[in-house]
Amino acid sequence: MDAPTIELKTALASLFTSGMYSDLTIVCGAKHYPVHRALLATRSAFFEGACRNPFLEAKTGVIDLSEDDAEATEHMVHYFYHMDYLNKSLSRRTSLRASQATSPLSSRFSKCSPPKKLNLALVEDPLLATMSAAKVSMPLTPPAHEPATQHPDAPSKSPDTPMADQIIIDELEGEQLEPELEVRSAHLVTHARVYAIAEKYGITGLKMLARQKFARDLEVHIDSPDFPEACQEVYDSTFHTDRGLRDVIIQAFRANPKLSLRQDVELAVRETPGLAFELFRMASGLPIAS
């Protein structure tokens, strides 16, 4: 990502966090989101109409979306300012620790992000680390009656102290929990609801993004217990002519015939006529969209 793009995304994120210069409020239940008309109106047909025409929302500066799903609404607002959702980034402190970690556990976390060129400057040399630790003013070997202590924020440590290694690993696990969950946990139902709200309010980019995330999660989490509920959500919240997520689900059944043997999937098919009809046409060799 080039510097101008980073600068723009940082500025948008700052506007979202601070609420500075906001001139519109989105309300969803108990939550209020200070937003900016220009940013929403230029990316959503619905919000463009609500801000431009002489509607109550344009006069009061408040748009009430309490009838929509609260989580999907939050992701929609987040998308306007971050061009993504479910992508909570690491803090600067966590990022620095992650880049300096030499434990084998750090390689597992690195799989969550695109591969980067190895920077040898960040590789910790055991000998240099030992020499650096020896320069610390505190005694290397404390008296027997005094336990070895170290300030929790101390940046350096001896590589041959397993307890210190374990502390750093535990901190990395705790601080990187959310990004790790994004990879390991399925969000099929969430993506389906974000797709539906994007369609409802005419946010083309968000709709495409939700479809991509849904397809990716489904490929990785085909055995997820959320799959039946996601199927019902898709077929209940979209028109039969909207093939965005429906085709992804049908393709999943076509590529994984054993899905039909799952009891929870069978129950979902029984309760979702649209899905049952399309699976019948697929099994009969007929075109899905009639």
UniProtKB/TrEMBL annotation:
Lineage top rank: taxon: Eukaryota
What are the boundaries of the region Disordered?
138-162
Q: Which InterPro entries match?
A: BTB/POZ_dom, SKP1/BTB/POZ_sf
List each copy of the BTB domain by range. Answer: 22-81
Query: Could you tell me what this protein is called?
Result: BTB domain-containing protein
Protein source organism: Ampelomyces quisqualis (Powdery mildew agent)
